[in-house]
Amino acid sequence: MNAQTRSNIIKALLHAASVLIAEDEFDSEAVDIANRTSRSRGAVGAKAVTPRVVRSLVKNKSAKILDFGAGKGADHAMSLREDGYDVTAHEFGSNVQPGVHDPDALRNGPYHVVYASNVLNVQSSKAMLRKTLMQIHKALRPGGVFIGNFPMSPRKLQGFTSNDMAAAIEEVFGHPPQYVPKVGAQPKDLGPKGAPKTPVFYVER
What is the dihedral of CA 132, 79, 188, 157, to 10 degrees? Predict the structure, then answer.
């Protein structure tokens, strides 16, 4: 066994170990904080930026899609389903509703697309954020795409910038994310100044 092969095996084992760690239960207080941000009105469903980006970029309606952190009513997922998309809704904690969310959503992948609307911003610790990103990464098939926004409010990680989020995504996915400048536009590489203040990130597995 040469040194390169040994290095690749070690990296694969470390990645597998980190996936197992990511599947541990989230801290109950952190779950409660995230659950309280669930929205039943306002910029949800067809009005929310993340599902609008999904509509603009995902033209194949038979693609298998996961709404990660769908919210108590899974409004985004329901709206996309009405438009003919194959969407599974995932939630945790007290937000889980029988008949609305699939309790086996993370095990029923892999998915072509995973999107997370107003999810990244409500992670209350770096450890929780990493677990969330690892779960998203694992849920995607190779070549699959993650789309997730990072709005200014609320941001539960104090002082955590959009560039910090880009770095966290890169750490899990192994390469920098892109961003979608507006609904209907194609993803772009981050420029010299990094990510915009309120980005919609786009990254392939």
Answer: -30
Cα atoms found within 13 Å of the Cα of residue 158, Cβ hemisphere only: 0
User: How far is residue 125 from each of residues 67, 70, 144, 167, 173, measured CA to CA in Å?
Assistant: 21, 20, 26, 15, 19
Retrieve residue 153's tokens: 């409010």
- Tokens 């890169």 map to which residue? 170
Q: How far apart are CA 54 and CA 161, in angstroms?
A: 23
**Verdict on whether the full-model pTM lies above 0.85:** no
Q: Give CATH for domain 25-204.
A: 3.40.50.150
Domain edges within the chain: 25-204
Give the whole-angstrom CA distance, residue 142 versus residue 111.
Answer: 9
Q: How far apart are the first and last CA of the chain?
A: 28
Q: Which residue's structure tokens are 């990680």?
A: 157
Tens-digit pLDDT profile for residues 121-153: 999 999 999 999 999 999 999 999 999 999 998
User: What's the pLDDT score for residue 170?
Assistant: 98
| pLDDT for 150 | 97
Between CA 58 and CA 139 the distance in angstroms is 17
Contact indicator for 164, 153 with CB cutoff of 8 Å? no
